[in-house]
Recover the amino acids of this structure.
């Protein structure tokens, strides 16, 4: 199937991505541009932007060969929840060697810093939390993966940072705010969201399973 070009919507970033392999972005705002890419064995993904730092999040992994602009390559096994930071100028391209299909969430980080929201709630920050796994932490982002357990709510917590979230399974999370307001969120496997900071709630899984990889923006 022929992919739709993205140059019309994103003239600066699109020129630095592979014109054939890059799909249209699923999120594009002042802080990030996000591409959702699924690759079969032997397939190559888009080249990361030359002018922006990029993070590759893995919803489903595999054995990946990453080739940089200078021709150097790296072979690595990735699994759900992994994350790789690609500095601007690297022009890295991933090819799935085996273990696919591999599901990558490619996030270009724009140069628009937003300081964390002051936490005056008295609640703990969203991360770390019991059961969360830290997979990447630098001056741009903090990446976590987390699996909810049915009937075990998270602690009530405060989100002081904007966050990109990608869900692994079909599963419903009940979100309960400080004032007791309840919202049922039926997420689908592979759905990706950009959630703004300044939120306080707890979550509880009401279906069989749900996991996510979550990237906080600094």
């Amino acid at each position: 199937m022929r992919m739709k070009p993205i140059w019309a919507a994103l003239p600066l970033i699109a020129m630095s991505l592979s014109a054939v392999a890059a799909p249209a972005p699923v999120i594009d705002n002042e802080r990030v541009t996000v591409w959702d890419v699924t690759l079969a064995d032997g397939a190559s993904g888009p080249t990361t932007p030359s002018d922006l730092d990029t993070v590759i999040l893995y919803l489903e992994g595999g054995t990946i060969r990453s080739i940089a602009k200078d021709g150097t390559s790296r072979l690595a096994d990735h699994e759900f929840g992994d994350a790789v930071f690609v500095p601007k100028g690297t022009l890295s391209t991933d090819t799935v060697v085996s273990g696919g299909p591999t599901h990558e969430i490619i996030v270009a980080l724009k140069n628009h810093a937003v300081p964390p929201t002051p936490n005056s709630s008295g609640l703990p920050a969203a991360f770390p939390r019991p059961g969360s796994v830290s997979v990447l932490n630098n001056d741009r982002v903090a990446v976590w993966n987390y699996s909810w357990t049915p009937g075990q709510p998270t602690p009530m917590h405060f989100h002081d940072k904007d966050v990109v979230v990608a869900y692994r399974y079909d599963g419903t999370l009940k979100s309960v705010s400080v004032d007791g307001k309840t919202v049922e969120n039926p997420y689908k496997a592979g759905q990706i969201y950009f959630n703004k900071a300044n939120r306080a709630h707890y979550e509880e899984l009401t279906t069989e399973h749900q996991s996510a990889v979550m990237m906080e923006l600094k």
